[in-house]
Amino acid sequence: VINMAHGELIMLGAYSTYVVQQLMPNHIGLSILISIPVAFIVAGSVGILIERGVIQFLKGRPLETLLATFGISLILQQAVRSIFSPLNRQVFTPEWLSGSLQINPVLSLTYNRLYILLFALMVFAMLLLIMKKTSLGLRVRAVSQNRDMAKAIGIRTEWVDAMTFGLGSGIAGVGGVALSLITNVGPNLGQAYIIDSFMVVVFGGAGNLWGTLVGSFGLGLTNKFLEPVTGAVLANILVLIFIILFIQKRPRGLFPQKGRAAE
Predict the structure, then answer these.
(1) Which of 20, 100, 189, 207 could form a Cys-Cys staple with 108, CB 3.0–4.6 A?
(2) Per-residue confidence band for 261, with pLDDT thresholds at 50, 70 and 90
(3) pLDDT digits (tens, 9 = 90+) for 133-189
(4) Where do the structural domains in the chain lie, given as residue ranges?
């Protein structure tokens, strides 16, 4: 499934953080923590609705899912504009996320970005645990490797599809909570990250969590090391050229699926 509405699910997570913070103006630090499960539930629920309402009718037709989810992304953006107005909203950073770590006179790292890095690793570890140690993860792997056989032994493949899409959507919403701490929350928030998301999947290898981890950190670090030398725009162009050259040699990415999963 090529999900062009993934960025809007990130946006919904960011707006969930804003709403929770407005409801708890005197407890900024606590509101951020409460926003994490709220954003997961909101974005995950919307993801399940998208899968059940649209994507289940377009299985095996990736171009149609691209067009359909692009239309959904426009609908979600307009819905947010109608509810919250087109103006950007600010999420306040709690005291324990403020400040920076001064490494040397020319280099300092803000605490909120460091915490986001650690938070991303925690989410990755939890997702890995779900996929490897739970019945849902077992069913997801079974359906992705051999849908017909999974259906034959009694696995409800439609339910697995919905839960898988909901899980991915919920994680996107949790990502929105993190992004709300470093950028303004607005209707176009997700558009800035959808291309990077696709590049990470292509580079790391579709369907491989370790590929996602290595791909995201690798491309992110490369981009940030290039920016001081080349500038932000040229750095993005150079990374894109690298991705194009890389997939010419390894079209399945860094960590391609093997065995029955590859088939």
Answers:
(1) 100
(2) low
(3) 999 999 998 998 888 899 999 999 999 999 999 999 999 999 999 999 888 899 999
(4) 6-189, 192-255
| pLDDT score, position 159 | 92
State yes or no: pLDDT of 29 exceeds 70: yes
Placement of tokens 């708890």 in the chain: 24
